[in-house]
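Q: Got a minute? One more chain.
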Amino acid sequence: MSLEAFTKVSEASKLLVEQGFSAQAVMGAMEMVGRAIGVDRAVIYENSTSTMPGKRLAPLRHVWGTAPMTPLLQTFPLKDQMAGWVEVLSRGQPVWEVVRNIQGPLQVNLEAQAVQSVLLCPINIGNINGQWWGFLRLDDCHKERRWSAEEVTIVKTLARSLSNALRQDLRREALAQTRQDLEAMMARCAGTR
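A: Always. Here it is, folded:
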């Protein structure tokens, strides 16, 4: 693993600190790290139960890639296709595999996207391994990659930076809502005098 990859994840982290979880910052961060470690695609899915009650799904939020973009699943059925991985990801741990070693519909879906190797890393918005918000997925479409410890570390660092940027944006939104609520309450109180 080159020094460039570690430099790029540092630059990506800085970008996310400066610009938050904006689409431009997220795409820039995924591209920097994706190119540095030589992946073909980076995808972010957000966990959701609102799309289909009773099912845990993951709607697609961001995608970057150098490989031709085949139609990606707009909503990824976690429990139906990744039941074993959901447990690992929800504990804050990454998952990686060569696609031909995966069984069932998940293998079919990944092969339809020309993925040969995949690495998933959770994005958490709680404390260290808190609420599991979604995941970052990296695809190698050219070879069956055995993900090195350094590559996994770099991707975990990017996922933590994405987590921190998202957490900060959510906190800013909550503070802005609280301020708006307090201002409305003060205006009502002033109007009753």
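A: The chain has a mean pLDDT of 84.
Q: Perfect, thanks.
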